[in-house]
Design a protein that fits this description.
By secondary structure, the protein is α/β, with parallel strands linked by helices. The chain contains 14 helices and nine strands. The protein folds into three domains: about 60 residues, Gyrase A, domain 2, CATH 3.30.1360; about 130 residues, tRNA modification GTPase MnmE domain 2 (Four Helix Bundle (Hemerythrin (Met), subunit A), Up-down Bundle), CATH 1.20.120; about 160 residues, P-loop containing nucleotide triphosphate hydrolases (Rossmann fold). The strands form two sheets. The protein has a six-stranded mixed β-sheet with strand order 5-6-4-7-8-9, with helices on both faces.
Length: about 400
């Protein structure tokens, strides 16, 4: 590393900097690499960049340095994708999962699954090379059991995507209900800022609002939707249409009702019967306006809670209830073996399909060549996760998600 001044082509000092040279095979990219450390001002960086770039030097494309590291064999695709996940991580859970992937726990688990498949392939192909040593029923049964064990392990890994998707994409909570039930008030309360317009007039929210919060280390996407009711207004109708579409994609619907309305129970029963999503939390609002002697009775078939968005009563309990919903099906975050990528989940599912086909062929006495083909297809799916098998389209999609400079 060297300290000195970075000068422009006329010799004028731009900044005092440090520079370090990293030789081939000892750099991040695996190629000769120079890094310059300057002050972080935008104009300083732009001025140095203008001096460096010319006809033979260009700005790196998104993820190009990490792509070079992958192509040089320094990292596999699971670790390359973990770099992007670490940069994008904005909660403790997403950072923890990405860090484990980067440190290699996930890679090692995938590698072990692949080794198990290769062992089975070796046995099958041995029967192809030596047809006189035909497999007896006991050998076929052992081979089938080995494939079953691999299937079980891959299935367990694929199932972690239920929680991994939430870690990576966030837990989607849609706040819905009839107009003037307090949806926007709850939205603002959970955000701790006046994000949504709140008025006594019903139908204020015409379109949905979406924001992110960190809830005990988990990323939660809160969506405030238009109130659902019979209306003749074109704009409000469009807002309600949008709300219904969003509800279909929710991990949890928080259906709010106004406890001060005389017919709220009948309305609620009718509203709940029209909802197809099983994950519904019924939330009675304006508890502060309900007489203490009055009994608040919700439909017994649904989870429910009463709150007051005005006084804050019950909001802490609501947050705990949301965390409970998030934790249902959440994998062990300390293991580091969690599928957070839709691409990985797709490949694991495809690998399972080929393994099941191979096991079926063994039990039905099909020729070993056909069994070996299915097993190799299963391995190829795993290899697409780590990058042993890849094409330019796959790399293009993966590294296009990176920011420039990585």
């Amino acid at each position: 590393m060297r300290y000195g001044y970075f000068r422009d082509k006329e010799g004028e000092v731009i900044d005092e900097v440090m520079a370090v040279f990293m030789p081939e095979n000892r750099s991040y990219t695996g190629k000769d690499q120079v890094e310059i450390y300057c002050h972080g001002g935008r104009q300083v960086v732009r001025s140095i960049q203008d001096v460096i770039t010319d006809d033979s030097v260009r700005i790196a494309e998104p993820g190009e340095f990490t792509r070079l590291a992958f192509l040089a064999g320094r990292i596999d695709l699971t670790k390359a994708e973990a770099v992007a996940e670490i940069i994008a991580a904005n909660t403790e859970s997403s950072y923890s999962a990405a860090k484990s992937h980067l440190l290699g726990a996930y890679h090692e688990h995938i590698k072990n699954l692949r080794d198990m498949m290769i062992d089975v392939i070796a046995e099958v192909e041995a029967s192809i090379d030596y047809p006189e040593d035909e497999l007896d029923p006991a050998d076929k049964s052992k081979m089938s059991d080995k494939i079953t064990n691999v299937e079980r392990s891959i299935k367990e890994l694929a199932e972690t995507y239920v929680g991994g998707r939430i870690i990576n994409e966030g837990f989607r909570v849609v706040i819905s209900g009839r107009p003037n039930a307090g949806k926007s008030s709850l939205f603002n309360l959970l955000l701790k800022q006046e994000r949504a317009l709140v008025t006594p007039t019903a139908g204020t929210t015409r379109d949905y609002l979406s924001e992110w919060i960190d809830l005990e280390g988990f990323k939660v996407n809160l969506i405030d939707t238009a109130g659902l009711r019979q209306t003749s207004g074109r704009v409000e109708k469009e807002g309600q249409k949008s709300a219904r579409k969003i509800m279909e994609t929710a991990d949890l619907i928080v259906w709010m009702t106004d406890l001060t309305q005389k017919s709220w129970r009948k309305q609620l029963e009718r509203d709940v019967s029209e909802l197809n999503n099983k994950r519904i939390l019924l939330l009675g609002n304006k508890l502060d306006c309900v007489e203490k002697s009055a009994k608040v009775e919700f439909p017994e078939t649904n989870d429910h809670l009463s709150v007051s968005c005005k006084t804050g009563t019950g909001i802490d309990q609501l947050k705990k209830r949301l965390v409970h919903y998030i934790n249902v099906g959440m994998p062990d975050l300390t293991s580091g073996v969690i599928v957070t990528s839709a691409r990985h989940h797709q490949k694991l599912t495809a690998s399972l399909k080929h393994l099941r086909a191979a096991r079926k062929k063994i039990t039905q006495g099909e020729t070993p060549e056909l069994t070996a083909f299915d097993l190799r297809q299963a391995v190829n799916c795993i290899d697409e996760i780590t990058g042993k098998v890849y094409n330019e389209d796959i790399l293009g999609r993966i590294f296009a998600k990176f920011c420039i400079g990585k």
